[in-house]
Amino acid sequence: MMLAARRNLGTRRLFPTSQPPSRCISSTATRYYNWTGHTTNVARDEVAHLAATPRRSLTLADLLHHGRPPLSKDALLASANFTLSLLPARLASRIQALRNLPFIIVSNPHMSKIYHNYLHSLSSLLPYQQRKITTFEEEKQFVNVLADLVQTHTNTIPVLARGFLESRKYINPEDVTRFLDTHLRARIGTRLIAEQHLALHYTSQPVSDEVTEKSDDHFSPSNYIGVIDTALQPARIIRSCEDFVSEICELKYGVRPRLEIGGEPDASFAHIPVHIEYIITELLKNAFRATIESGNEREPIEVTIAAAPDVPRNVRPIQEDSDGRFQFASQSEPSAAQESIGYSSPSSQSITIRIRDRGGGIPPEVLPHIWSYSFTTFSEMDLENTESANLRTLDTLAGPGGRLSSIAGLGYGLPLSRAYAEYFGGSIAVQSLWGWGTDVYLTLQGVGKID
Asked: What's the distance, Cα to Cα, between the start and end of the chain in Å?
């Protein structure tokens, strides 16, 4: 079965931060300590107002606009203010979405923790919202806020998963899938925006500045702009993920299937390695396990890479709506991000990866449900025995080079992979021949040549 394989992995923290402090709730507002140690109130109407703010579109070109690090002072401050312009509304929309859940769901301690984490992050950003960041000192303080935000939301997905597991008697699976699909897509953008500026900050410091005391993790290869690899070769990531999945298979089954890469293995484009690594690992886990358990381990996993020609970005841009989904914008009207940033439009590069296995295909009764977040595979005893050590293994954006994972048995692998693929206009399509094997088509929409 294609969805059966799951793994537990550790993640590498990219930025040093501390745990969020304690909070308490009042009836009309939320009061707690922000990163500076001062109490802050977030009124309900303020959250509603921010949540209703039109969402700016986010593209890879936006994240690349500020240039290669080290950035100049003006470029670094522009990146900080761009980041600040996007985050408050995104956090507020997630708070509003949690408030719209049934009260008995939000009362769950795990769901309540997520709710207060978002309030904590929003409160930390509000003091900066009414003014621009104009000095290096303000930018450094803002970086501390972003680092706290990234750390605070590190375990959002496993905590949400446990909360919905414990509350599944009070909400139907369709509503859970709908909420998670929207929430996790929005989370991808929020963390990406924050981590992009953090990476640009750390790689733009003078040699004599604070970065010399930091971990080497803060230094990116020259082809990186923040968390984006401008010369990413999917074939290299596929080989890296193959090694990892093969080791798991050899430990569990005593065999490791072969993987053959064809098509255009030298194809490259600008994209986020950690996103592609998560997707490829999940798809290879499914293909490898199906191949072995069907007794066809001598048959190779065939991976074909096809790069589409570069196309100008004067086509209708894909924009994110208030629910974290994407729609085509008007061809004649530039997005808000284009108006405010004024970046030059690079070319768009699409790469499609086909993963073909001889694992017997997906059972017909399972196929209609492969894109749903499943919460029925755990029994009550399983739930009691599933400790936080296992749940903490699910983190969906640790940083460049960080390993990612999913909760075994919960069916998060494929829907999360699709969320990552679709975030910048890509897709995942599955074609199964029951009794024979499965073809998975992963299309990634990146950016072509970067000058």
From this structure: 44
Q: Classify 388 in phi/psi space as left (phi over 0), alpha (psi -120 to 50) or beta.
A: alpha
Assess whether pLDDT exceeds 50 at residue 37: no
Domain 23-214: which CATH number of 3.40.50.300, 1.10.1760.20, 1.20.140.20, 3.40.1010.20: 1.20.140.20
| Separation in Å, CA 106 to CA 51, 92, 99, 101 | 18, 16, 7, 7
Structure tokens at 213: 């005391």
- Name the 3-class secondary structure at 272: coil
pLDDT at 368: 87
pLDDT of residue 448: 74
Q: Are strands 301-307 and 259-263 parallel, antiparallel or unpaired?
A: parallel
Tokens of 317: 């841009």
Q: Is the predicted pLDDT of residue 331 greater than 80, yes or no? A: no
Q: What CATH number labels 228-311+347-447?
A: 3.30.565.10
Q: How far apart are CA 361 and CA 1, in angstroms?
A: 7
Residue 314: CB atoms within 10 A of its CB come to 9
Query: pLDDT, tens digit, for every residue of 134-174?
Result: 999 999 999 999 999 999 998 888 889 889 989 989 998 88
Residues near 442 by beta carbon (within 8 Å), at least 6 away in sequence = 279, 280, 283, 352, 353, 354, 355, 421, 426, 427, 428
Decide if 303 contacts 351 (C-beta within 8 A). Answer: no
Tell the burial category of 315 from Cβ atoms under 10 Å away from its Cβ (0-12, 13-18, 19+).
exposed
DSSP bridge pairs for 427? 443
Residue extents of the structural domains in the chain:
23-214, 228-311+347-447
Tokens coding 422:
């679709």
Residue 17, strand partner residues = none
**ω into 363 cis (within 30 of 0):** no
pLDDT digit string (tens) for 59-117?
888 899 898 999 999 999 999 999 999 999 999 999 999 999 999 999 999 999 999 99
Under 8 Å between Cβ of 445 and 424: yes
Q: How confident is the model at residue 374 (pLDDT cuts 50, 70, 90)?
A: low
According to the model, what pLDDT value does residue 41 have?
53
